[in-house]
Specification:
The chain has helices spanning 12-25, 29-42, 49-62, 95-112; strands spanning 66-68, 84-86. By secondary structure, the protein is mainly α.
Length: 116
């Protein structure tokens, strides 16, 4: 298996929660992200109820607000009504970033079994 170094823009509080979950799970951030993405692709839930509770707690600590919002018009996520997204400060200069966050968090939320 070949891995590459990449730069990914991600909402700050979401990254803090991901780092804390990686620490809690005793894996690297990269390994956690790979697990989340692969599980999302296959529709599997990777976190048990205890870990989901810890994630919710970490979200409160780091100010991660999850709410139902509409994806930007024309993005793939806009076809799904009431999809969970990260509530980030709007960045009118970078709508592509918001669409990417919406898609990524939608997949993460489905994988986590979160039904907000």
């Amino acid at each position: 298996m070949s891995r590459v170094q990449t730069g990914v823009r991600i909402e700050r509080s979401l990254l803090k929660v991901l780092k804390a979950v990686a620490e809690y799970e005793e894996v690297s951030l990269g390994a956690l992200v790979e697990r989340i993405v692969l599980s999302s692709f296959t529709g599997k839930k990777i976190f048990d109820d205890e870990t989901l509770g810890k994630i919710a707690e970490l979200g409160r600590v780091y100010g991660l607000e999850v709410e139902t919002v509409t994806a930007p018009e024309g993005s793939p996520a806009s076809d799904v009504s009431e999809s969970p997204q990260v509530a980030a400060a709007p960045d009118p200069q970078d709508e592509a970033r918001e669409a990417d966050l919406a898609e990524a968090f939608d997949g993460l939320s489905r994988m986590l079994g979160d039904e907000h």
